[in-house]
Amino acid sequence: MTILEAAAALRAKKISSRELTDDALRRIERENPRINAFITVVAESARACAAAMDDELARGVDRGPLHGIPVAHKDLMMTRGVRTTAGSKIFSDFVPTEDAAVVEKWNDAGAVMIGKTGLHELAYGITSTNPHFGAVRNPWDPERIPGGSSGGSAAAVSAGMVFAATGTDTGASIRLPASFCGVVGLKPTYERVSRRGVIPLGLTLDHVGPIARSVRDAAVTFQAMALKPSGYVPPANAALRGIRIGLPQNYYFDRLDLEVAGAVRAAVQTAAAIGGKIIDVRVPDIDGLNTVARMVLLVEAVSNLGPYLSRRGDFGSDVLALLDQGRLISAADYADAQRLRRMFIGEFARLWNDVDCVFTPIAPIAAPRIGQTTVEIGGVAEDARLASTRFMRAINALGIPALSMPCGFTGSGLPIGLQILAAPNREDKLLEIGAAMEDALALKEMRG
Asked: Which domains, ranges and CATH numbers included, belong to the chain?
């Protein structure tokens, strides 16, 4: 059931928010021991909130499509009176006195918070294998990672524990777990959603966005968190007629798994079949921009987390190694990286004169196994972290919106993701394109 379907059922009195919430809690009780998607579950307050939302609907108070819908928040979002760990030993006992802005906005929209989802420690990694709270596991294959850092949010949505969850994306952290877990993730334009009350990692790279079961659910949840929402949700007849779709002829198809390449190219063919105009494009130096984005993040992460580095034993080894790297980068190198970043932003912006969106793979591989540090692509071993993020990290440096949605499956049944990019603040167009693709690909039917 999608958010829109549940919303219709609530208003038709076919179901109540209390029933939806009880069902979510039962699923968590059944599935969380296997998936480990949640760090904290707030069953009592969730049931109380659901009862209040039912009462409001009975009195004619309707807050919109999220009214009475069970959701979760990545445990990076501050929640008043509920601990916010950031997946870290350092913050394991931190209980905020205020809600993050995105939590406030979903509360105001009537959403029912079920709990806080697990993540890669301090949101600084792509596996969500957490040394303090245990590994989050992929619902499609619990021996595989869900992606990160918003792995718990994606796993919870994928496993049907909640309808939607918040995530953050600094270098892939909404889009990668959405892809690996077969759900939809939206990284909005930089600062289109407030970061107030979100524990920071890279201040000029951090984005806040939703993870949901469908593109239209992503639209509903995005509109409920955006600073200046348009209210747009793609209609049932979303179409691609006349949409100019850029297909990169460099970089994005150079080194990737054959099954991933086949699924993404099949999606491009589907787009053409339903009216999209495919235009070959050449993108700027994405490898160079990835290097810039990594350098910026190394410096900004150590700036944010440096005050805690005296507690070295409280960090996981992978995060500590990255923070130590950040301490070695000079101010001049950081300034040069930001200068190059501005140059790349200008180069990439020229693409939007010729196309309305760009299609790329999300990652060159499907989800690796837990503990796997290298992956083989075309017979060549690559670092799993760098390979997994190579198609996404640059997009954070650009600050443009990006949608991650399923476009197929490997022969072993693992989800494959399509990334759709658009110009700044064109989320509505991006979601319309994604909804048209979702309808045409009909992956719900494929999943059974």
From this structure: 3-223 (3.90.1300.10), 244-288+337-447 (3.90.1300.10)
